[in-house]
Amino acid sequence: FCLLRSFATPIYIILYGFIHVYFKFKKKNYKMILMRTNFDVKFFIFLGFFLFISVSKSTHILKDDFEEWLSFNLENHKEETNLLQQNVDSKLREAESQKVIIRVNKNSQANFKTIKEALNSIPVPNTKRVIILIAAGVYREKIVIPETLPFITFSGDAMNRTVITWNDSYSTIGSDGHPLETFNSASVAVNADYFVAINIVFENTASYSKSKVEQAVALRISGNKSAFYHCEFYGVQDTLYDHKGLHYFKNCHIQGSVDFIFGFGRSLYEGCTLTSISKKLNYITAQKRSTLSLDSGFSFKNSYVKGIGEVYLGRPWGEYSRVIFSYTFMEKIVLPQGWDDKFGSDKRNITMLYYGEYKCSGPGSNFSGRVPWVRKLTDQEIRPFDGTHFIQGDTWLTTH
User: Fold this and answer.
1) Is the pTM of the predicted complex or chain greater than 0.85?
2) In this structure, is residue 116 part of a structural domain?
3) 240 within 8 A of 262, measured Cβ to Cβ
4) Which domain holds residue 354?
5) Which of 37, 83, 177, 254 is the most buried (most CB within 10 A)?
6) CA–CA separation, 327 vs 340, rounded Å?
7) Which helix or strand (DSSP H or E) is residue 30 part of?
8) Active site includes 157?
9) Could you tell me the CATH number of the domain that includes residue 199?
10) Residue of 168, 238, 259, 340 with catalytic role
11) Residues 96-143: pLDDT tens digits?
């Protein structure tokens, strides 16, 4: 300790590394550590004793600087710990602790040959993480996952395609004799919370063979806290109905023509490819944040905009529509204006819209021609939107 006292700067560095590693360990293992408060007490008693012995009064300036740094980090750790203690999703933790696996393969012996049969086999209300392993192939099924079946995972084949496809559209007549309209046209509709999809292709082929394009949804996600990894979404108009809730899309491909990502959702799209297939002027997003108090919006990060024709990045379905693009490469198909302030014949109040871009690249990202009311976000302004904190991911996202 005497030797250590004579080298104040190395102590600073050593303690910085020591505490940094400690906090990293805590953050990654909070579910276990939160129940071991004795560990925290012993650690900080030892740390205080070490500082008292090691730092001499002759290093007054360094001591003040270090204590300020230490105080900040301890307070930050305290806030993070309190947040985790309050927001850990106990229902999800319980469900993940008792996983069930079901296998679906239409061409061989498995638990079931169809996805519907697999879903129907699950007791309701479901409280376990049920992983449905779906073999490669094309499954021509219209799927609806009810609210009573949360914690469902669709896991497709990583090497070959697992496709779920149907062909309903807005005008398709339902069992009640009336048109299904947009909401019920989805090939896959998820009304349950905690849904996860991995390596799944969602498709609606309704408009492929029709002369007139109309709303035909490939996936509607209405459940909260749902995630999609390495998935593909194919349609024409209204491909992905990001209806409501917190959602995460990672390394996905979304293809369509008109408003092919739309809804009320509060969602992060990270590493996604957005492909326009319309030869006419069209729109990628139509976000429907309808009130100032509604905390929703779409954030696209590290993504790629490509395709044919010309597109606006978005138009306002809702009067307070909110969409952000950051670190995204945009091909020339993006119009210089970038954004539209009209939805059909309804012109929105531009002061209520929140459309922004941050450090995007590519020929379609040139900001010089953008409409004057779009925001060129600063480092500080992008922070609420550029990570999984935007969707409260620390409390419910798991590694896939």
Assistant:
1) no
2) yes
3) yes
4) 92-395
5) 254
6) 21
7) helix 30-33
8) no
9) 2.160.20.10
10) 259
11) 999 999 999 999 889 999 999 999 999 999 999 999 999 999 999 999
